[in-house]
Specification:
The protein is built from 3 helices and no strands. The chain is mostly helical and 71 residues long.
């Protein structure tokens, strides 16, 4: 008679956004799922975010007004 492994139960007091690793992952996921964009658009958005985070070129838009004034 072997012992059964206990099921993993996250500590939501320290990680309330589980199963996401960090809060930003959760917030990004919530945004794109609420926006009902396609898988391809999500992947494109993720590539743009990673490019902006890596500093490969500056991202200068700050809000909706900036976007509208450029478009």
């Amino acid at each position: 008679m072997g012992s059964q492994a206990k099921a993993y139960k996250p500590d939501t007091s320290t990680n309330p956004w589980h199963p996401f690793h960090v809060c930003l992952d959760f917030e990004f996921s919530e945004l794109v799922l609420e926006a009902t964009i396609s898988k391809e658009q999500i992947n494109h958005f993720l590539k743009l975010m990673k490019s902006a985070c890596c500093g490969s070129e500056p991202f200068t838009l700050n809000d909706y007004g900036d976007l509208c004034s450029m478009w």
